[in-house]
Specification:
Helix content is 63%, strand content 0%. The protein is mainly α.
Length: 75
């Protein structure tokens, strides 16, 4: 799993990465996966790339999505 996270982290949060309708959802999933893998420092840039936008999935998996996104983005 770590190599996949490394690859996504290297490309997704960059400004030149192609944008599409699900960009925020993709970045949210990457931030979630990094946090769950204990890589919260690396997730900080991904959280910044979301512009603070929260998606129900995956953040709502364990409860209120806004609460979980806020908690992890401040970790």
């Amino acid at each position: 799993m770590a190599p996949l996270l490394d690859q996504a982290l290297a490309h997704w949060p960059r400004p030149e990465h192609p944008r599409h309708a699900a960009t925020v959802a993709d970045l949210g999933l990457l931030a979630y996966a990094l946090c769950r893998a204990g890589r919260t420092r690396e997730a900080a840039g991904v959280f910044a790339a979301t512009g603070g936008l929260v998606t129900p999935w995956p953040w709502g998996h364990d409860g209120d999505p806004v609460e979980h996104f806020t908690y992890w983005s401040r970790s």
